[in-house]
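Project channel, design review

CF: Before we commit to the Sphingobium boeckii constructs, I'd like one complete example in the thread so the newer folks can see what an input/output pair looks like. Taking Lipopolysaccharide export system permease protein.
RD: sounds good, go ahead.
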Amino acid sequence: MQTQFFPSRTMSFYMAKAFILRSLAVLAALVLVLQALDLLGESGNILAYPGNGNAQIMTYIGLRVPQIIQRFLPFSVLLGTLITLATLNQNSEVISMKAAGLSAHQVLAPLILASLAIAIVSFSFNDRIVARATSTLDRWQKVDYGPLPKDMAVQTNVWVRDGNNLVHAAAVRGRSNNIVLSDVTVYNRANDTLLEVVKAPTVKYTGKGWLLSNATRFDVATGIQTPLPVTEVGQEIRPDQFTLAQVDPDGLSFMGLEAAISDLQAAGRPVAALQANLWHKISGPLSSVLMPLLGAVAAFGLARSGRLFLRAVLGMGLGFAYFVADNFGIAMGNLGAYPPWLAAWGPFALFLLIGETVLIRTEE
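CF: and here is what came back for Lipopolysaccharide export system permease protein:
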């Protein structure tokens, strides 16, 4: 048996290249099919807004494709693993490697290293591109595919409760004491009965309350609308209630989500669900490393025995079982039933042990 962990340089490059090319080919096919199906269902909503046309369709595709790549890259790595290993097995290349003294782990080493490189690229892609695309698409959908505000840092359609009253801001800009609200509507209520509606184009935070300028008041009882002088309201409403009202972990980078969690913790608000999503930003891309291990059953066993297809199905079943467990763990983390670390890393650790157990018991 060879003492080095990797096969020869030539063999390692050959296996890694075949694995990466097949994974990318599967990913490209999935993206084309899924984007076409998604566009069939969403194009009507995009074109429903007056003035939208082919340019908006292409913009939607540019924002949606990164999300599809993020979601289905681990599936593509799994299928690429199965195709690569099944082909090597069918051509008796695995038998030749084992006859040369390589163990099952040494046979899989080039694929695991290549999948680690894919995981690193995937994390960077998700952090730099997918998060921004998700945030932009979410804001675009909130305005029914109409014109987006030029300020990409703006939050839209934010609701805050102030006792019995409700406050709606069409747009929120800035942070802390520099926060500015646009197109604000205040619904003043008593005993769940609407008394008046106050509207203001711009509201600024003064440090003690919220300053309304050019506001109007509509009295529900009389049906009369009157202008209001410059008024300060909402002394109990904190700025973080607007800036942290909508924290979408999918629309934030790793560092951005970590900063939002720190702000929420400082405000005394629960963050367990967001912490689970924070760590899943690492464990999610890293799941690509598991795919060669879970699909390894397709590499071994005699191809002429007729069980190669069954082995491939078993590898696919293990891979898809991981994705089910991973989604279940995140769902439990969002509900608060699992601690953040367990929700993010529990399925990864479990299927790492399962893959190693299957490989050791069957091949080592």
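RD: helpful, thanks. The mean pLDDT is 85.
CF: The chain has two domains: 9-145+271-362, 164-235.
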